[in-house]
Amino acid sequence: MLVLAFLIASTLIAQDAKVMPLMSKDLAEFPGKEGLMITVVYPPGASDPIHRHNAHAFLYVLEGSVVMQVKGAKEITLTPGQSFYEGPNDIHTVGRNASSTKPAKFIVFLVKDKGAPVLLPVNLMAAGVSASPKFRRKVSAAGVVIPGRRTEPLQTLTGNLDT
Predict the structure, then answer these.
(1) Which residues contact 20 (CB under 8 A, 6 or more apart)?
(2) Mind listing the pLDDT tens digit for each residue in 31-89?
(3) What string of H, E and C letters represents the secondary structure of 35-96?
(4) CB 78 within 8 Å of CB 66
(5) Cβ atoms of 65 and 77 closer than 8 Å
(6) Which helix (H) or strand (E) holds 9?
(7) Is residue 127 domain-resident?
(8) Residue 37, in any domain of the structure
């Protein structure tokens, strides 16, 4: 019985999103800008904190389904073959796996300032955004996500990742 209870409890705890850089390329025609392509895998029940990219972000779903929303827009559920766009001024209020039992995988292509962080946490109060405590993450006074939280792998994706 104890093993069964442990297995059930462990499947209910959301796991961190896994981020893998695919390529990075300086955009010579746009000085100071770079293109960055990453894959993101949301395990069952995974979600992102409220954030922004300060970039043009183009998302394409490969597997599973994800729920996305930017401030001021409707929440949408995307399935394989569908896409989503976030502009440099958008605040990404919802980003999560739509399933609590199956993973979701998508590609994101970003056009951003060279060397800039991929993801910046947003101060919820200053942005006028509300979220359930389930989706909030601990952030330091400097606005940096405390290590061990979901956004840490995304924050480390800066600089040249040429492959």
Answers:
(1) 38, 39, 40, 41
(2) 999 999 999 999 999 999 999 999 999 999 999 999 999 999 999 999 999 999 999 99
(3) EEEEEEEECCCCECCCEECCCEEEEEEEECCEEEEECCCCCEEECCCCEEEECCCCCEEEEE
(4) yes
(5) yes
(6) helix 2-12
(7) yes
(8) yes
Which residues form the domain of 85?
14-155
Look up residue 12 and give its amino acid: L
Encoded tokens for 71: 């401030």
Residue 64: burial class (beta carbons within 10 Å; 0-12, 13-18, 19+):
buried
Residue 161's Cβ-side half-sphere holds a number of Cα atoms within 13 Å equal to: 19
Tens digits of per-residue pLDDT, 84-134?
999 999 999 999 999 999 999 999 999 999 999 998 998 765 555 554 434
